[in-house]
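Hi R.,

Here's the chain you asked about this morning:
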Amino acid sequence: MGYEDTQLSERAKTAPETLTDGFHLLIDALKLNGIETVYNVPGIPITDLGRYAQAQDMRVISFRHEQHAGYAASVAGFLTKMPGVCMTVSAPGFMNGLTALANATTNCWPMILISGSSEREIVDLAQGDYEEMDQLAMAKPFCKAAYRLTYAQDIGIAVARAIRSAVSGRPGGVYLDIPGAMLGQIMDAEEGQKSLVKVIDPAPRQSPAPDAVARAIDVLKSAERPLIVLGKGAAYDQSDDAIRALVEKSGYPFLPMSMAKGLLPDTHPQCASAARSLVLKDADAVIMVGARINWLLSHGKGKQWGEPGGKRFIQIDVEAEEMDSNVEIAAPLVGHAGACAEALTAAMDGEDIAPPKAWLEQVREKAEGNMAKMASRLKNNNNPMDYHAALGVIKDAITDAPDTILVNEGANTLDLCRSIVNVHKPRHRIDVGTWGVMGIGMGAAIAAAIETGKQVLAVEGDSAFGFCGMEVETICRYNLPVCIVVFNNNGIYRGDGENWGTGDDPATTVFVKDARYDLMMQAFGGDGSTVTSPDELKQAILAAFESGRPTLINAAIDPAAGKESGNIGNLNPSSVVAQARYPQAQS
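And here is the predicted structure, written out as C-alpha cells:
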C-alpha cells in the first residue's frame, strides 16, 4: 500500500463522508444513467455490491442461478430499450451468465454482464487464485464489447462505454470485468463524482437514404403479391404507430414473427399468420421490417419460399452488414425500424402501390379456411387433454385479458402456442428467440413482471420448465403476479417413449410419470394445482389472474400428443444405418 492509499484509509476512519469507493461509484454510475434494477446471484466478491445497491434504493432481484438472472436482464433490455444489468460472481458464476449474454447478443437485446474476477497479476501468472479465470478473454467472442476495470476512477467512463455499446447500432451484450480489489479502492468523494459520466444520446435515430427509399418504392410498383414480415427488431424499436401506419397505408398482408406478434393485433384484418405457408411461398415482393432472413425463415430459400428467384426483398435493418446475408436484397433500407417505416410510408403518397384485390382475397380465404379447421380442435374436451384443447383455453384467457404478457417455451408447447394464441399488444409475447434456447421461461417471466408490473402467463413445456423451475422460489420470494402453466406430458416431445435396448432404464426422453410440478410452487408459499380438463384449466387460470399471486398449474397432457422436435424435426440428422437397425425409428 502506497503513502496516498494509507492516507485515504486513515481518512476513511475519521471522515468517511468525504470518501467513496469502487462499490459506490459503480452504483452511482448506474443510477446516473437511469439504471435502477439489477438482476443477480450474490457471492464473492459482489455480495456487498448487491447490499450497497439495495441500500441506495436500487432494486436488486436475486436469483437461484446466474443463467436465469442473465435471461431476465436480457428481457429487461428488450422491454425497456435500456441495458438490463446482471451481476455475477467470478468463474463458474460468470460462465453461467455468459450463456445469457451470448443469447442477448444473438437476439440483439441490450444487456450488461458485470462479474467479479480474480486479480490480473495472479491470473496472468497462473498462480492459482480463487476461481482463477481470464474472464475478459472468454467473454469477447460472445458479446459486442468487453471491458476490464482496474482503477475506481475509471468506473464512470467504463459504465458509459458499456451502455453506449449495448444500445447503439444493433443492440447486444456487453461485459464488464471487475476485479474484487478494485471495488474496495478508496478515493475522494468529490473527485469520484466528477469521474462519473452521463451518457448523452447513446443510440441516435438513423434514417434511410432518400435514394434507398425510392428504390424500395420502385420494387413495390411492380409487385403483384406484396407481403410485410415483422420481426422482433421492429417490436424492440417501440415505433408502434409508425409500423401500423406502414401496414395500413400499404394495405399489404403482414406476417409477424413470434415476438413481433401484437405490434398489430393478431386479429387485424391484414394479419396473414393463418395463411403463413401461402404468403411466404407466393409473395413476389417482401418487406422485411426488423426481421432477419435466418433459419427461422429457412434462409429465404427452399420449398417454403416457392420458386428460386421469384421474390424481391426490401429489407429494413439498422445493420448494413445484415443485407444480402442469405439472399439478394433488391432494396436495402438501413436505419431504425420506425424511421424507415415513416420514410417508406411517406414515399407511398401518390404512388401506384396498392395490392391487387385478387391477392388479398386469396390470402383472406386461405386464412379463414385454416382458422375454421382449427376452431373445432381448440374446443375439444379430450381427457387427458391434447395441446390444442389446452391452448384453446390459453387463447381465450389472453383474449379476455389482453394486457397479460405471454411467456412461452418448449417444443410442441412453443410451436403450437405461437400459431394458436393471439397476441393483441406490442411486446406482450416473449419466447426463446433467435437461438431457440430452452430454459428462458422463468427469467423472462420475472423480468416481465418486474419491468412492467403486469400479469404474466408463462406457458411451459415440462422439459423447458426443468431447465429453470427452481426460480419459482424467486417468483414467490418477490410475490410476483406470474401464473405458470406447465404442459406435463411426462417427457421430452412425448412421454410414451420406449428404451430401444434390453435394459430397465427409462427411455432417454421420458420423465417421472405424472410428476406434480404444482407442489414445487406450494412448497415456497405460492398457489398450485393439477388440472386434467380444459374446464379445470380455465378456472385455474381465472383464479390466478384474479388473485395476482404466484401460481403454478400442472396441466396433464396426453403423453402421446406431441411429436419429435415440434415443427423443426427436420433439423434432426437422419441415419440410414439407424433406420435399418432400429425399427422404432420408423414410427
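One quick note: Residues 3 and 60 are 36 Å apart (CA to CA).

Cheers,
M.
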